């Protein structure tokens, strides 16, 4: 766990390894299939660790690989100590750990312990009778009855995947709670015996096998308010209401997370928690303050949620946003750690969102796709905090083609939200949901990773067997981009190197937003300390300036922004290549640049 360092742009020798590390999320079902069944697997991943190593990845996070009925792609675990057979075996995990460690890389697993699968033996026991010793391991409540004597759930809460958070159990005549699908019952963290089983049978089991830590799913939902009362009615058209105040950041959450910390600490394991519904920095800080001994890092979702409608009922009713909103949110989550002992994460993709280039960039032509994907890389690689990449982001992978119809969406959330829209018989809502899904759905990020230009994209050997359809566009693959200096992939590789080399500025530096109302270009200053070859510490400043439009854009006054004489400023990076490079004082379409007052002039 972290040592006590305050974030003031100083890169300190006492900093833990994971701050300057690049993490890379693998969604195993879609990464690399080694046995021709159309489903990615661990031997496939092992065969590609060298690719990730070459890219500059320090730590791999693998989304859930455990035994599961796959109602939510493995985020419904039925046995934490077994591997879902299509992924491989526990020996494959050992081999993956070894493969990473031999290359000086780390491996973290996804810890999903807010809920289990309904098929987990703990739940099978819990639901077997009201007197079973594990009855209290889950959250069971008696029904309510309305004036007409009809049975009703204990509260009016809406679940993430639409419908009620409660499912009736005929056998024991009570409801159980599930914030997600009905096949994902919530564990009762109030029960100390349950918590100890989680720590021992999920966490320590894998830590003893050598994993380096966990990405912790839904980390702020373990402590629920225990009154179990109705939420305020915010959607008059539904019997079910958004109720995050009832089950998010609840009264005992920090106590539970400190216990988690005590499990991780003896293994010096890293933790990154998924912290949803918490957009207030004051509320986030206690989770990631080093002194509080809770989590090393969290994912805060304000940036990645841009474009989403209301998180509950209207999530897939797309809400357009402006560049200044994107800037302001980035600034907010860059600056919240300054002067504190906490730490930030940097990411713009994961398995729960549409692809970044399709949301923040421009995919209307191959040139604009490339230019905007490279500028997104520049943006991410120059931000303070630990950088997380999602598989395929480094290739500029895009959302599904617009021509694909709704039958290609397989994710439980997409399917349920669309079914809900259809049930409303409101044509406008149906069309709006379709549109929102085409930009935001979780399915987009789950399309097979593209290794080559073949019909099977090198993911599998028979595209007909692939669990998700394989798009056919050319040019978005490792094969087509590797070695091409104008590609998205090679740009990511260069940027990851540069970020490490000047980490005092890019990873640890302070962030100052310039010209915040400008809706075309985005400019910020990164400032921190760098150590010269002869061991001196010097202050370094970088100006990151990016054109987020297809129009040429005037360049800011670089020397004024950097606060130094024109002859001391250097162009360190431009995303543009050859003929499309902008003029000296003008950025071309989607061009991004870094100017600095230190280091060599490197044009990549
Ligand atoms: C967050 C995960 O990222 C998501 O994929 C999953 O559906 C929910 N948690 C439930 O585990």
From TrEMBL:
One Pfam assignment: Alpha-amylase
Enzyme type, top EC level: hydrolase
GO molecular function: alpha-1,4-glucosidase activity; alpha-amylase activity; glucan 1,4-alpha-maltotriohydrolase activity; oligo-1,6-glucosidase activity; sucrose alpha-glucosidase activity
GO terms (BP aspect): maltose catabolic process; sucrose catabolic process
CDD domains: AmyAc_SI_OligoGlu_DGase (cd11333)
Alphabetical list of InterPro entries matching this protein: GH, GH13_cat_dom, O16G_dom_2
Keywords annotated in UniProt: Glycosidase, Hydrolase, Maltose metabolism
E.C. code: 3.2.1.20
Catalytic activity: Hydrolysis of terminal, non-reducing (1->4)-linked alpha-D-glucose residues with release of alpha-D-glucose
Domain Glycosyl hydrolase family 13 catalytic: 25-446
Similarity remark: Belongs to the glycosyl hydrolase 13 family.
PANTHER family xrefs: ALPHA-AMYLASE FAMILY MEMBER, MALTASE MALT (AFU_ORTHOLOGUE AFUA_8G07070)
Protein name, per record: Alpha-glucosidase
Upper classification of the organism: Eukaryota, Fungi, Dikarya, Ascomycota, Pezizomycotina
């Amino acid at each position: 766990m972290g040592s006590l360092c305050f974030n003031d742009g100083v890169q300190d020798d006492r900093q833990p390894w994971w701050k300057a590390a690049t993490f890379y999320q693998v969604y195993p079902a879609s990464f690399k299939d080694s046995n021709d069944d159309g489903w990615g697997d661990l031997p496939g991943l092992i065969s590609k660790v060298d690719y990730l190593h070459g890219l500059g990845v320090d730590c791999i996070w693998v989304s859930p690989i455990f035994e599961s009925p796959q109602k939510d792609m493995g985020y419904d675990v039925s046995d934490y100590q077994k591997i879902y057979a299509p992924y491989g075996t526990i020996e494959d995990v050992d081999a993956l750990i070894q493969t990473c460690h031999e290359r000086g890389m780390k491996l973290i697993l996804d810890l999903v312990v807010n809920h289990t699968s309904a098929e987990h033996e703990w739940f099978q026991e819990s639901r077997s009778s009201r007197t079973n010793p594990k009855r209290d391991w889950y959250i069971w409540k008696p029904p309510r009855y309305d004036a007409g004597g009809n049975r009703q759930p204990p509260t009016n809460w809406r679940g993430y995947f639409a419908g009620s958070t409660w499912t009736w159990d005929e056998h024991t005549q009570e409801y159980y709670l599930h914030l997600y699908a009905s096949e994902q019952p919530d564990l009762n963290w109030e029960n100390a015996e349950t918590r100890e089983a989680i720590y021992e049978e999920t966490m320590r089991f894998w830590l003893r096998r050598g994993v380096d830590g966990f990405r912790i799913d839904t980390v702020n939902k373990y402590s629920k308010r225990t009154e179990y009362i109705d939420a305020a009615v915010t959607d008059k058209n539904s019997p079910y209401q958004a109720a995050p105040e009832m089950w998010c950041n609840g009264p005992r959450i920090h106590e539970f997370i400190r216990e988690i910390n005590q499990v991780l600490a003896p293994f010096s394991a890293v933790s990154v928690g998924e912290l949803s519904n918490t957009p207030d920095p004051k509320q986030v800080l206690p989770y990631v303050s080093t002194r509080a001994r809770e989590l090393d890092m969290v994912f805060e979702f304000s940036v990645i949620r841009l474009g989403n409608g209301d998180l509950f009922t209207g999530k897939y009713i797309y809400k357009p946003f402006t560049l200044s909103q994107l800037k302001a949110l980035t600034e907010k989550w860059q600056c919240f750690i300054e002067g504190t002992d906490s730490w930030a994460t940097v990411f713009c993709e994961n398995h729960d969102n549409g692809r970044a280039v399709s949301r923040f960039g421009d995919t209307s032509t191959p040139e604009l796709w490339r230019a905007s994907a490279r500028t997104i890389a520049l943006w991410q690689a120059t931000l303070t905090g630990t950088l997380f990449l999602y598989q395929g982001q480094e290739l500029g992978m895009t959302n599904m083609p617009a021509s694909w119809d709704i039958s290609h969406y397989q994710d439980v959330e997409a399917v349920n939200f669309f079914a809900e829209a259809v049930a409303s018989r409101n044509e406008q809502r149906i069309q709006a949901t379709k549109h929102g899904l085409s930009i935001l759905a979780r399915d987009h990020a789950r399309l097979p990773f593209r290794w080559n230009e073949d019909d099977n994209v090198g993911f599998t050997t028979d595209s007909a067997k692939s669990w998700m359809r394989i798009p056919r566009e050319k040019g978005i693959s490792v094969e087509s981009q590797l070695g091409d200096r104008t590609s998205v992939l090679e740009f990511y590789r260069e940027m990851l190197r540069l970020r490490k080399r000047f980490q005092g500025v890019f990873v640890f530096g302070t962030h100052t937003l310039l010209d915040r109302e400008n809706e075309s270009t985005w400019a910020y200053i990164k400032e921190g300390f760098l150590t010269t070859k002869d061991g001196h510490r010097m202050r370094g400043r970088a100006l990151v300036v990016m054109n987020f439009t297809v129009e040429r854009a005037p360049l800011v006054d670089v020397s004024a922004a950097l606060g130094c004489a024109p002859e001391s400023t250097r162009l360190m990076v431009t995303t543009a290549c050859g003929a499309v490079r902008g003029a000296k004082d003008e950025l071309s379409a989607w061009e991004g640049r870094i100017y600095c007052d230190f280091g060599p002039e490197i044009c990549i």
